[in-house]
Amino acid sequence: MKSTTRKQSAQVTVDRRSFLKSVFVAGASTAFAPQFIFAASGKATPNERVNLACIGIGNRAAEVIKSLDATGLANIVAFCDVDMGAPHTVKTLEKHPNVTRFQNAEKMFDKLGKEIDAVMVATPDFSHFPNVMLAMKHGKHVYVEKPMAHTFQEVELMMAAEKKYKLAAQMGNQGHSEANYFQFKAWTDAGIIKNVTKITAFMNGKRRWHGMTVADYLAKQEIPATLDWDRWLATAPQHDYNNGYMNGEWRSWFEFGNGALGDWGAHIFDTAHEFLDLGLPTEVNAVKLDGHSPLIFPQASTLSFKFPERGGKPPLEMTWYDGQENLPSLPDTFGEAPLDPNIPPPSNATGAAELKQKPIGKVIYGEGLTFKGGSHGATLRIIPEDKAKDVESKLPKVPKSPSSHFKNFLLAAKGEEKCRSSFAVAGPLCQAMALGVIAQRLNTKLVFNRATKQITNDKVANGLLVGPPPRKGWEQFYKV
């Protein structure tokens, strides 16, 4: 299997050469030549609501739309979905019967572009990138679900676009606007969390690909009448339609998703990544992979991320565990992981009850203190309890969040706040996770140069930083 993976990935490296020459500046990080000129972004005045267009309206997108609408700051002016009218999109349409509908985002901007201030993108991982880039090139503020994009280089381009167009750009890791965010910052600023050398992060719940075995991509099926399959594929390589890719099942496949790491990493170790200034790792090692496949994610993974010394902070190793039985070694005093009651419901049968049965969370080992934490907005706790009591009087006051993650984005679009999970903040986090996915895909160790942003020990892996060139007609999104 391992040799098959490398053969397929090596072809990616060959195929990308001509595309790279025509689009990217070799070795550049954010220095891309301007290719488009669009109208400057408009800002709603303090008394106005933000005119919002939504790309993706079913499953998780429906929950995001509900949350943005509940702020009272959004005026939803357009819906766009490649499967408009399918069972998973009908509920959203019934709740908002008067909102204009599109199946093609480019046509939406052609017709309603002047009426749109901001765009929400909640499509499959691999199609975040073209939809976000399209919106930003039209001068629209963007809220996108995590991870920001599918590949390392796509994230790089999105960060460059945020910098160039000077727009409000928020990634949807809601914990960045909840208690854990403000506690982690306050405790770090006060020196309660300091000199961290080790983090254990874990997500051991059931995933869609657990129990799956595949020898190839899925067999061709008839495309549903409601679905624009070509636009669902977006920039991804050509594949035949099969229902086994739809409604979240795409998460199982390297071609479309980012696995448990991309799905949950941004909720588990996001605050540690930001406030410990982790940036990009120098090494990522696939320590253990059960059921390695060139097509779908492993049944279990243990990944080691090594971060160097950073401005006086010591080197740090973060170890990631996923898989139902691939449990990490935890301190005897860990107990149960804190569970955030605001974790969004999953789009399949795996529910909140399992989150209580299977651990999801982190352990942070700092100087003199050990912290346990959960996911999303769940706050840290010092363990053991006697240590917590010893430092209780030294703990700083933690401010309350001034706005939910959704309200924060809309206020940023109005110029009243700054996005707490901007692309500049979320981008390196997503790039670190993208490196982890490459290590999973190739079942190997990566050596990464933080300065050049290149994998130096493996040409095939380095090619996967960019991935295959987009299908014909989708090249424009790769030009900032």
Write a short abstract of this structure.
This protein is of the alpha/beta class and 480 residues long.
How would you describe this structure to a colleague?
With 480 residues, the protein is of the alpha/beta class. Helix content is 32%, strand content 16%.
How would you summarize the topology of this molecule?
Elements: H1 2-23, E1 50-55, H2 60-70, E2 74-80, H3 87-95, E3 100-102, H4 105-112, E4 118-121, H5 128-137, E5 141-145, H6 152-165, E6 169-172, H7 179-189, E7 198-203, H8 229-233, H9 259-268, H10 270-275, E8 283-290, E9 300-307, E10 316-322, H11 352-357, E11 360-365, E12 370-373, E13 381-383, H12 385-391, H13 405-413, H14 423-442, E14 445-449, E15 454-455, H15 459-463
Parallel strand pairs: 1-2, 1-4, 2-3, 4-5, 5-6, 7-10
Antiparallel strand pairs: 7-11, 8-9, 8-14, 9-10, 11-12, 12-13, 14-15
Helix pairs in contact: 5-6, 6-14, 9-14
